Amino acid sequence: KDQASKFWIAYKKVSGEYDNNMLERCNSNMDILMLFAGLFSAANTAFIIAMQPNPADTTNNLLVQFMQHLWNGSSVAQPVILLEAAAFSSSKIWMQVLAYTSLTFSLLVAFGTVLGKQW
Fold first, then answer.
1. pLDDT at residue 83 above 70?
2. Of 9, 23, 26, 60, which one's alpha carbon is 20 to 30 angstroms from that of 92?
3. Cβ(92)–Cβ(51) under 8 Å?
4. Higher model confidence: residue 69 or residue 111?
5. What pLDDT does residue 113 have?
6. pTM for the predicted model, two decimal places
7. Could you give the C-alpha distances from 73 to 2, 66, 83, 117, in angstroms and in order?
8. Are residues 20 and 107 in contact, defined by beta-carbon separation less than 8 angstroms?
9. Is 106 exposed, middle or buried (0-12, 13-18, 19+ CB in 10 A)?
10. 99 and 48 in contact (C-beta within 8 Å)?
11. What mean pLDDT do residues 3-24 have?
């Protein structure tokens, strides 16, 4: 065989070993990324649920107003006034915006790693 074919045979062997090594490293890195994104998403979801207002408070406020209307005997529809249940401070709103944003990005990372592993 000539020199060129010997070079390409050696090149194919060396490049195949390098590519296989790189694919194994990338695959293990994507496994770690997917695990971290899944755990972070679960923890972030727990915090988001904990930040939500208690729906029982709103229900109790509406029931109290309903009972007051029944006891007062007023037949005219009056506006419903929710007490403190519907009031959110700007810091709570920003905390929820950041929590939902971080959840979105972690789910996008998990989706990207799934696509990368399937590729």
1. no
2. 60
3. yes
4. 111
5. 92
6. 0.64
7. 106, 11, 22, 67
8. no
9. buried
10. yes
11. 92
